[in-house]
Design a protein that fits this description.
Blueprint: E1 16-24, H1 28-39, E2 47-54, H2 60-67, H3 69-73, E3 77-82, H4 88-96, E4 101-107, E5 111-113, H5 117-127, E6 131-139, H6 156-163, H7 166-169, E7 190-191, E8 199-203, H8 204-210, H9 222-232, E9 236-247, H10 258-276, H11 283-306
Parallel strand pairs: 1-2, 1-4, 2-3, 6-9
Antiparallel strand pairs: 4-8, 5-9, 6-8, 7-9
Length: 307
């Protein structure tokens, strides 16, 4: 959608209220649990689940299609089947291109929806038409907050405080605790710069304006980049504490793939810096940043090897 200087185009009519996009990759038990946490609730809105299988070769797709064959027939679940894994962003974009809902939810396959989370989030976004993306409170299985659910953009300064450990030493400092906003009350609701892709509810009108996920990112960083573009288009990004999910973090990764995921994590930092910050800093700062990113990558691989 092209936006003129006179303001945003008027909202269009949609077939559904919410499309929930879940990407499965060899995580049968977790994905099934996620889907059931949605289906087991009586939602007062029209929704669908779009399950994208990223070329799983462990039989998980076949089992999921069997488990939810009734829901597939009645239209509550649609399957998109890939023969090649081109990454998380690519898989979500496939589903996004086929949805016709007022809101879209990116939902990780290792999460569980708690109570009326979805209804609460949609109602909150309905009250404020300026909200482009909303994230809820994301809890780990032990009940602690998944700190990634509310963040600042990884500027050079913010990243430096995190890499040097200053953010952990002074979590209540507004200066040093900016990476995960640890100085803010997790039980309050407020505008943030970034939310996590494990649960990201986005207004479709916003997506039409800012575009799809950047497929240059394979698995990490695409959510931060999306939030950056959403904020740049003058939409709000909100952390909403009155709705919750449980995130079985890391459950969707197996041990053999961990080295690749470590690489993709730091590669995402490199891509994001080049895309949004490189032109704003001197060549010296850029070189130092590159050394920091790939130095941390090497250190992480070294530690992971001995584990």
């Amino acid at each position: 959608m092209i936006v003129s200087g006179k303001g945003r185009a008027p909202p269009r009519r949609f077939k559904m209220d919410l499309s929930i996009i879940i990407v499965n990759y060899r995580t049968y038990d977790l994905t099934k649990q996620t889907i059931k946490s949605v289906l087991d609730k009586d939602h007062p809105f029209i929704y669908e689940i779009v399950l994208v299988d990223n070329a799983s070769d462990d039989g998980s797709l076949e089992k999921l299609k069997k488990d939810f064959s009734r829901e597939e027939k009645d239209g509550r679940i649609r399957f998109i089947i890939n023969t090649e894994n081109k990454g998380f962003a690519h898989a979500n974009n496939q589903a996004l291109k086929e949805t016709d809902s007022k809101y879209v939810l990116l939902l990780n396959s290792d999460t569980v929806i708690v109570d009326d989370c979805l209804e609460r989030c949609m109602e909150y976004m309905e009250k404020d038409k300026k909200i482009g993306a909303l994230g809820c409170k994301v809890l780990l299985p032990d009940g602690k907050l998944d700190k990634a659910c509310r963040r600042s953009f990884p500027t050079v300064g913010v990243s430096f405080y995190r890499m040097t450990g200053l953010s952990k030493l002074f979590p209540k400092s507004e200066r040093f605790g900016r990476y995960n906003l640890t100085y803010l009350d997790e039980n309050e609701t407020y505008d943030v710069e970034c939310i996590v892709g494990a649960f990201m509810m986005v207004r479709s009108n916003t997506i039409e304006e800012v575009g799809l996920l950047d497929e240059t990112f394979f698995m990490y960083g695409e959510d931060i980049d999306w939030c950056y573009r959403i904020k740049a288009a003058n939409w709000k990004v909100v952390y909403y504490s009155d709705a919750q999910i449980i995130h079985y973090k890391g459950g969707s990764l197996n041990k053999k793939e961990k080295p690749k995921m470590i690489y993709e994590f730091y590669r995402a930092m490199y891509i994001f810096y080049n895309k949004h910050y490189r032109d704003s800093y001197s060549k010296t700062v850029t070189v130092i940043t590159y050394l920091g990113i790939w130095g941390m990558y090497c250190l992480k691989r070294f530690i992971n090897f001995f584990r």
